Amino acid sequence: MSNKIKVGVIGLGARGSSLLEGVILQTPDVEVAAVCDIYEDRTEHAAKAVERSLGVRPFTTQQYEEVLAIEDINAIVVCTSWDAHIEITIASMEAGKYVASEVGGAYSVQECWRLVETYERTKVPCMILENCCYGREELMVLNMVKQGVFGDIVHCSGGYQHDLRDEIAYGRENRHYRLNEYMNRNCENYPTHELGPIAKVLDINRGNRMVSLVSVASKASGMKEYIKQHKSDDEALMHAEFKQGDVVTTLIQCARGETIVLTLDTTLPRYYSRGFTVRGTKGMFMEENNSIFIDGIHDHNVEWSPQWGNVEGFREQYEHPIWKKYFEEGVKAGHGGIDWLVFADFFDSVKNKTLPPLDVYDMASWMCISALSEESIALGGQPVAIPDFTNGKWTKR
Question: What is any Pfam family matched here (predicted)?
């Protein structure tokens, strides 16, 4: 009997194909048995990549249900458009397959509850592939938090701050779903990159939980200006109205009293940043200037300069064990290594039949922020309650 994990990959756009070729096919003891996408050319491209790598052509289909029906597939990787993530994750659990889903936001709280209820009924694990939880800085800061370096954590912030105007504007040509999303929704549409690492710092679902949020959105001007300057020959887009605000700010209150601020900023000119910031009673970390400030070590009366507080000075003492091991074994591809690390944990859980570190309760509570922010924005920034998807178990998990 083979010890290989047999995997079905569903969704083979830019993200799915890059993960397939750059991570999954490079992982020992993993065999890609099936590939699926609604577009036949994407499926064919993936099948050829698998055949080049493994010497065997995988099963191909445009219907994900056919992949789930293959008995000897152990695990499913979902890289489809956002609106299909939870649907396919639920179907995979129903089919008895370990499943890892790419990130995004939920469209309703009800689908998040269905996700949790399916897991609790089937006991088939799912994992959200939030690679930013494996970032080198994020894990080092988490290690420092757990060792008490920053004291009692009071506030965290982060953002998905990424100029995506080109990707959105050319969504029809590239068959990318973001264009449709930005024309029809107004919400914190991509919360997990910033929220995942913050949730680990604040013990969300494991001794703490998010209880409510307030979300507001700016006007939507960025895409209109971009299209006017770069795509004025596109008659349909020139007259299109975008609902998605250029900057969305979401404030979250936690059960232990901490606050979280999330910022979505993807349709104005800017540099890339996740803005990860941790504030505690003994110090702070700030991604924007790559700095650490420790009370009693650094002088709060002096303006910050690159000569002090740089994270590199803390590496030797606080580098996370995951990254120490990773450097020893050799850094591999995928967003500087974080794709490799998140998949390594998923495949380990499949192989050992254990629960993944980013579980169904994380997936539901992080992804529901999109639907709840949409509601809060529509209500003029009114507070909205965040469900407890653990049904009270967060106090002792």
Answer: GFO_IDH_MocA
